[in-house]
Amino acid sequence: MTEMFKNLIAGEWASAGNASRNINPSNTNDVVGEYAQGSVEQMNDAVAAAKAAFPAWSRSGPQERYEILKKASDEILARKEELGRLLSREEGKTLAEGIGEAGRAGQIFAFFAGECLRLGGEAVPSVRPGVGVEITREPVGVIGMITPWNFPIAIPAWKIAPALAYGNCVVIKPADLVPGSAWALVDIIQRAGLPKGVLNLVMGRGSVVGQALLQHKDVHAISFTGSVSTGRKVAEACIASSPMKKVQLEMGGKNPLVVLDDADLKIAVEAAVTGAYFSTGQRCTASSRLIVQAGIHDRFVEACIERLKGVVVDDALKSGTHIGPVVDQSQLDQDLKYIQIAKDEGGKLAWGGEVLKRETPGFYLQPALFTETTNAMRISREEVFGPVANVIRVKDYEEALHLANDTEFGLSAGICTTSLKYATHFKRNSEAGMVMVNLATAGVDYHVPFGGRKGSSYGPREQGAYAKEMYTTVKTAYTLA
Question: Less crowded by CB within 10 Å, the N or C end of the chain?
Fold first, then answer.
């Protein structure tokens, strides 16, 4: 019998009238579980619980918050193989990637456990004699979180951990497609000793519970990760609400990897293939535009194809798999649509792009590499979010930099070169929030800020100490001596 997973509201597991089936994309006959589909009423109850818990939690001591987050971290790390298997089973990442992501979630909680003890303030003299000034940070209040399906445990972790560390209460709505990892994470945090109502989980459709979260007057801030179109709607809702909500948006990218003639070919190919295709290309930091200088272009393409020939696409849980399936039929249809668009625009499909059959029914797609493309094509302008990349030939570094920046996105960018001059110039002049030199554009540390520019991100950065910009508000207090 399929297990039923409930919503968490005010510290209690609450049933819902409906449930959705969580399907394994590596084997569509495998049902991970049935997960509650929350209602507007349940979302309202969750927000009310968070509001009621906020006065006490916001004034809790740093030691109490440290111990709870550290206990959660310890359990996540102790169970990372189990959690990683669940993640891979519901999302389609390889088991190694799933375990790695679960471990990262544990590391994030350990980092923010420490942040509980590091939050400080300032005491400065006023320009007026005899007056003292204190600058402190306080929690924002009730934080609503809407998380995506591609990193189903890491992204909830890097939103929940700082929110709790800085004294906020949380209502989280995970992606309806992959709720299992978020449910497991919330269960761990709740059992670590969190007071009732501080953390609430409401699963379900974005159009129902997500919209209710956005519109609720007692939600003070929204942290969202997802598509650009949905992100804009989130921002509009936050500004239109009364009172207005603080908002943080992470919305994707069309990330360039520049390969110059002087690049180490082996390093460049590995950066391109792992950055563009691993995690099935379903990363907002994936390097989907490969901007390659003419002198190395042909050798680079040939070497990429040889590397791709050795890539194994199969069941995410199977030993030896390098790339798992696409997450579901809808995403597979989108990938295939863009492959056809690229062909229609005149791009040459140099490798892959075929739907694959494996022992179990799933959404398997051979990585696709296009050549003879330009930066004006839709394949270069729009985020595909799948194992699809295109090569753009350029004559020199100046053209490469121009094309790298010629996008409405600005999340991550990379360059492969042995020239200190070009590496230094690119780091300074790339219009991206994160820049990689001789590395894949995907893959960032948990203790440093994550985020981009232009259409990729809006509002404060995520992760690391910079997360306090989202989850705290600054107060300036004056005292006459």
Answer: N
